[in-house]
Amino acid sequence: MSAKPAHFAIPELCNTPAIALLVLFSQLLVVVLLFAGGEISWVRFGLMSLFVQWVALLSAAGLCALRKPLAGLPVGLGAGIMFCLVLVVTAGVGLITEMLLDRGPGAVLRILGQLIIAGIITGLVLRYFYVQQRLRLQEQAELQSRIQALQSRIRPHFLFNSMNIIASLIATDPDTAEGVVEDLSELFRASLNEAGNQVPLAEELNLCERYLRIEGLRLGDRLQLDLQVPGPLDGVQIPLLTLQPLLENAIYHGIQPLPEGGTIEMKVHVGDEDVAVDIANPIPREDTRTSRSEGNRMALQNIRSRLNVLYGSRASLHTRDEGLRFVTELRFPKMPETGKGG
Question: What CATH number labels 153-333?
Fold first, then answer.
């Protein structure tokens, strides 16, 4: 597979923090130029400040207007347009300055010097943008790889159990066996979906229902469910395959070790800014819990890692032992719907 061609990209310059930094760096440049040679005076400092700030702000305004069109161009062409834009703005401000101040002979040489300085600084800025873009693309590629690795993990025992269920039902209940095949194929299709994909919460809950149907056939009356999900869920997004692994974890570590089984409780709360999901399962006896505790921690850590990659500190996954119940608390920001499905 050939690599995708790189496109030119510049950071967002049309916001208050970016403009403040631009003004600050421009003023630092004025100080450097003031002490680099020539007369040191407040008048010269003021004139240089006006010149440099006008060039910087007008160039930033032009780049803001052209940011989206430039983003779709090859790196060389986009950089060339940006370079020419800054030089045109510098020349224009230089001509206006010469006309207003009427400084006489040497105007061409002064404007030429201004263009050389502007060209050098713009070249350095372009190089900085290019390096930042390459680093950002590399980080995104690494994050996508981590998300894909964490998202695609399905316990082998679940696959084997599902295949055994299908085999046992083919002769006695082919319709149910066909339903298990369909549910299993949907779960595997989701696990192979695009890394980090955001899907509607209703779609993720549908995957959970498919998984619980399969486990219900295997565990029978040992598995009881108490699902409290508000409706409607329009516009609520969630990372694909977030809830299903937590339910699988609860069944594997909470229900399966108990001969009498138990109840899995899941409560979903959608707030104005975030989504909360609480999943509770019974706690097995100490003698059956010890051999599974390490696997439990590893599964939860995998989910935490995936949430950290997608949301950073805005998401959390905590657990608590209430004596008779083990509770998993998931919190993540409420994302606007993008229309991108699984």
Answer: 3.30.565.10
- The C-alpha atoms of residue 180 and residue 163 are separated, in whole angstroms, by 9
Distances (CA, A) of 112 to 43, 122, 191: 22, 15, 60
CA 169/CA 75 separation, integer angstroms: 59
CA distance 318 to 68: 41
Domain ranges for the chain, please list them: 16-149, 153-333
- Better pLDDT: 223 or 339: 223
Tell me whether the omega of the peptide bond preceding residue 232 falls within 30 degrees of 0, making it cis. yes
DSSP 112: H
Cα separation of 278 and 329, whole Å?
A: 5
Q: Determine the Cα–Cα distance for residues 317 and 246; give it in Å rounded to an integer.
A: 10
Mean pLDDT (the chain, rounded): 80
pLDDT digits (tens, 9 = 90+) for 178-195: 888 888 888 777 766 655
Dihedral sign of CA atoms 193, 194, 199, 201 in order: positive
- Please list, in sequence order, all residues whose beta carbon lies within 8 angstroms of the beta carbon of residue 29, skipping any fewer than 6 positions away: 52, 121
Question: CA-to-CA distance for 262 and 284, rounded, in angstroms?
Answer: 10
